[in-house]
Every structure is written in structure tokens, then in C-alpha cells.
Amino acid sequence: MGWRRILAYLVVITFVATILLTFNSKSYAEKNDVFVKKHNVVYEDLSSYFTGFSYDLEHKQYTIYNKAKSEKRLSPNSTFKVPHALFGLQTGVLEDENTTFQWDGTEYPFPQWNQDQTLTQAIQNSTIWYFQEVSSRLGENREQYFLHRIHYGNEDISGGLTHFWLQSSLEISPI
Predict the structure, then answer these.
(1) In three state form, how does the secondary structure of 123-170 look?
(2) What are the φ and ψ backbone dihedral angles of 63, each rounded to 5 degrees?
(3) Does any domain span residue 155?
(4) For residues 167 and 175, what is the distance between their CA atoms, to the nearest angstrom?
(5) What is the dihedral sign for C-alpha 126, 17, 93, 155?
(6) Is 48 a catalytic residue?
(7) Average pLDDT of 159-173?
(8) Does residue 163 sit within a domain?
């Protein structure tokens, strides 16, 4: 399957994850109000710092503010769950959003991780062990293949099959 289809899957999973996370039990407005009150949020208009940041559709050209930060590569960490979900779905490692992996009994600092997980729950909870299992089932060859196919960052999995995206060898920049 081509990179365009993988990209389409990525967009769909990102959209679904956003919907699930945003509209879980309370409305977005209610959750936002609770967050603002709980964390003493201050709104500040910073738009003047980002003047000229845009994408010109006509010329297919980006204008970027802060060249150095836009080129700095970092490990994707939790955001890599989206490509992992796509790779798993593409290969059949994951059948659908209800694919369940059993918790092995390891106690994690996040209580929601300490139970069996479906793909939907693993995305919502950012459950690292679930995606480490996806990676183990994919194997090095398929991980490397998909990273290369979608030109994901430096495509480096040398940090270990179940850790390369977690403060390790895989790095990607906003560019």
C-alpha cells in the first residue's frame, strides 16, 4: 500500500483520537473551563511573534518563524502512537480499534495503564506498553520499512525495537 494511503490512515486516526479525547464525557467547553480554572491559565495574544508564519497554497511554500527550532529533531515519544497504530492496522497486527492486548501485571505509575487495553483505550491513555507490544509484533523489518516509506524523521530504530521512539534514536523535527 502506498504512502498516500498510510497518510490517509494517519489523518483518520488523528481525527478519531481527537474526537475521542475531546468529547469523551463532558463537552469541550466544560472541559476547557475546568482546565482554565484548575491550572490558572492566562490568555495572551502572541500573534505578533508569528507574523509571516504561513503556508502559501499558490506557491506551495512554507514561511517559518524560528528556523533553528523548526529544524531541531527530538524523539517523538507519545506522538508516535499514531504511526504505530497505522502500521499495526496496515499489517493486521491490529485488527481494528477494539484490538485488545492483555496487561502483564507490571505496575505502572498511571492507573489506567494497569489493565487490559484496546487500541482506543491505548490511544486515549497513551499506554506505552501497548505500543511496545505493537512494535514487538511488527518486528524490526516492518518498523524500518514503514518509517522509510513515510520518510519519518531520521528513520533510526537503533535504540531498540520497543524503545526507539522514546527519548532514543528516532528523531523528527517540525520541518
Answers:
(1) HHHCCHHHHHHHHHHHHHHHHHHHHHHCCCCCCCCCCCCCCCCCCCCC
(2) -115, 125
(3) no
(4) 19
(5) negative
(6) no
(7) 96
(8) no
If one counts the domains in the chain, the total is 1
Q: How confident is the model at residue 118 (pLDDT cuts 50, 70, 90)?
A: very high
Other Cβ atoms less than 10 A from the Cβ of 116: the count is 10
- 156 assigned to some structural domain: no
Instruction: State the sign of the Cα–Cα–Cα–Cα dihedral 155, 161, 164, 168.
Output: negative
Give the range of the structural domain holding residue 39, as residue numbers without chain letter.
Answer: 3-23+31-149
Q: What is the CATH number of the domain that holds 66?
A: 3.40.710.10
What is the rounded CA–CA span in Å between residue 148 and residue 34? 42
The catalytically annotated residue of 25, 78, 158, 169 is 78
* Amino acid in the structure at residue 141: N
Q: Is residue 67 part of a domain?
A: yes
Residue-wise pLDDT for 90-113, tens only, equals: 999 999 999 999 999 999 999 999
